[in-house]
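Page 47, continued from p. 46.
Same chain as before, 138 aa.
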Amino acid sequence: MPYTSILLFNKMVEIMEILSIAKEKEIAVYDVKNGWDLNGSIQSKVMAMVFSIASEIERDLIRKRTSEGLKVAKARGVKLGRPKGPGKSKLDPYKEEIIALLKTGSRKNYIAMKYDCTPALLWNWLKKHNLQDIKVEY
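Result:
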């Protein structure tokens, strides 16, 4: 049995389990758009299997189209992924204010909270800009 067939079978089994549990707990499952009642009868089980097979086929088609599109883009020389380089930070516009706060002795946690970022982001930003060793001025 090929890998995709095993995967498809597992998904169908999971769907059947979900419908079985829903029936045990007296939960009604409806397809509102098409007006189907998935109540655990033979017909509803067949419909659920058809839905699961159709959705699995659609996922495979999407996966295949995406990988083919990425291959074509790569062949054209398009660079994929995040751009390389330092990038911009949301803290950049506040550089002078942050330096002033550090010089007056403000704690890094307070500064991170003030500019709505995590302490780790602030620490990395300070390190990137060589500002981690600012001393308090009296």
